[in-house]
Amino acid sequence: MNDFPKEEFISRIEKIQIHIEKENIDAVIITSPSNFRYFTGLDSNFWESPTRPWYLIISKKNPIKAIIPSIGITAMQNTLVNDIETWESPNPKDEGISLLKKNIKSFPKNSNIGFELGNETFLRMSINDYQDIQKNLSEYNFVDASKILWSIRKIKSEIEISNIKEICSITSKVFDDFPQKINLGMSEKQITSIFKKELIEGGADYIQYMACASGLNGYNQIICNPTERVTKDGDILIIDTGATLNGYFSDFDRNFGFGRIHKQVLDAYNKLWEATERTLEIIKPGTSCSEIYSKLSYSLTTNNISVGRMGHGLGLQLTEPPSIMKNDKTLLEENMIITLEPSIEMDENKILVQEENLLITKDSYKLLSTRTPENLPIIN
Length: 380
Prior knowledge:
By secondary structure, the protein is α+β, with helices and mostly antiparallel strands. The protein has 10 helices and 18 strands.
């Protein structure tokens, strides 16, 4: 379990109860790992096993109830959840569905029961089981609760901010010191192995995400794992990492040049840096995500934009709402944490990307990542 005080979770439960009352939802049923952790503090990589579903019920009157496989009873008893029901699992014929149905039936008919059905949420239960509930409990209304969940999670508490600040600080230090740790001729795998080691020694709990790419005068993607490709003269290498502390992510990248770098690449790198610099000037509560996107787009010129969005929310998940894109009208609010991630396409299949993490403050913002170097770090 993490060491967050129980008052943190009590506050979160009280907030969602206010929202479900306002939205006329009688109960929200949670199945996904991040939301389960958000409301209980349960800290486990057991979610990597897809065999057993877990259910959490938060209603208007009853604070919180867990319906979980029996293997999880001891862990759940260490949280603030006191009302726990279990079943023996694996049991493909009935993975807790009978218990879940029984609990739904405890609410009046025609109640609105919320599930994680919307954008950037998902059901961690079989679709067949969810359809079974819909079919056999047709006297209930099953609705999307994702809007409520994200309205709470997008504003970070002091303890959430503290953890994200710390993991960003750990990651920043590793990035800042990294040019002295690597050499021309190392492979992507060798380089990222050193990076992972430095992160763990620096205090990170896990490295949940580690993308790396390299190539002459740029790279063609930023989402895949490192390969055995060896760095050569003129290469640009990017590391984009999501390290965690108490479940909370950092998510930013840095670029490194190897040997002699073409002027076009250096110019593109500087253009990205300057676009971010100009965009930071407008970051404050009340600024919309679409305004941020427009500012970055204008600074880079639209024909150089290579991805659909240029940043996102950050927290218990590597990416969270909102999205920095032209059709997201979400307004920034104090204590939101977002990334800025502009990219530029230099030639066909050659891109550069830079990313920062920042906290929205009362009047402006605070960088949580150390600022990307103004000039590309060169490794010889």
